[in-house]
Amino acid sequence: MKTDFSRLRRMHERGRYDRAAMDAVLDAGYLCHIGYVVDGRPCCTPTLYWRDGDRVYWHGSRASRMLKAQRGAPVCLTVTHVDALVLARSGFHSSARYRSAMLFGRPEMIEDEAAKDALMNGFIDGLWPGRVADIRAATAKELKATSLLTMPIGEGAVKISEGPPGDDEEDYALPIWAGLLPVATVLGPPQPCPRLAEGVPLPDYLRPFAKG
Amino acid sequence: MKTDFSRLRRMHERGRYDRAAMDAVLDAGYLCHIGYVVDGRPCCTPTLYWRDGDRVYWHGSRASRMLKAQRGAPVCLTVTHVDALVLARSGFHSSARYRSAMLFGRPEMIEDEAAKDALMNGFIDGLWPGRVADIRAATAKELKATSLLTMPIGEGAVKISEGPPGDDEEDYALPIWAGLLPVATVLGPPQPCPRLAEGVPLPDYLRPFAKG
Question: What is the domain range of residue B145?
Fold first, then answer.
């Protein structure tokens, strides 16, 4: 099964359309993988991320070796959504349909604690509008213990592979089942914490997930 | 939302249990991200992979710059499954539950065409048992046009984060909804190719996906 990119849009040739495609891929996810180098060796680490305007953000413990290695160093942040597995009439044309965004840059650290708080709250409210008003506010100690990295949406590429199997012309007539096996990510239904305080209702922003 | 690893198992301290955990995470997926270095800069590229015994495999076009850059060079292959988003009573303890496997090594290329064919068929039959018998066999030209990389399951780490929100003790009594928002990947239902030959039935190995 080869990797098949039916469309490739590089950001360094970008127009508005490419940036819109980049934003759409970024906004459809919350998990990225970041490639970076530690002692000359590549590492690829999964982490949560979010976009705010022209930047992406990710965070972790101030003690995180990953964040220390990434700060100011070249990184590659990649977000991938698999939309389908492609069952073609040959193994050669079998592949996957997916959308991916790849961003290159050198992350900076956000030092200002109020800015950190606001940005991280933006991540939470971006996932569940209104959640920040419900939760216990961050303490100064927590903000200090958290590192927040960012880089601009600059150099990068959006790759979108879509459509039915692309077989060799003479293979279409073969009596072989071919098609797509769609892949979807489903969120929900919410599972309450076993220690939930009595009488706390499911918040409105989680209702859309109640049917799973 | 910080990244929270409630369990961390490093393969260099591994016993049978850790290797079983590694295999379970690898076998639950088909998409990995590979970190590698091109001209001194890290890249993080999504690709399909599979495990066969003590090795992982991935492949692509013989012209692929990615595969050329990876061959013999240090890489980090990472597989991540997000199982839930954690809505804790504070942003600080909000995070994700996930399983990830990270493998380090220097990939080799499989040159023998018969071995390549058998290994790639193993990938397809691993996903859909019996599929290889149905599809058109690979041609010599196709095998030549495909590069297959492999590395042993050696140095690496398995990370598993699970369980309900881990809040500060004094926060549990707060009237704040907390819990997990489960994340699941759903495959199916199969979508036939618009050019499917007449009368070709859905194969048995796709029946389990027919309900989506």
Answer: 7-186
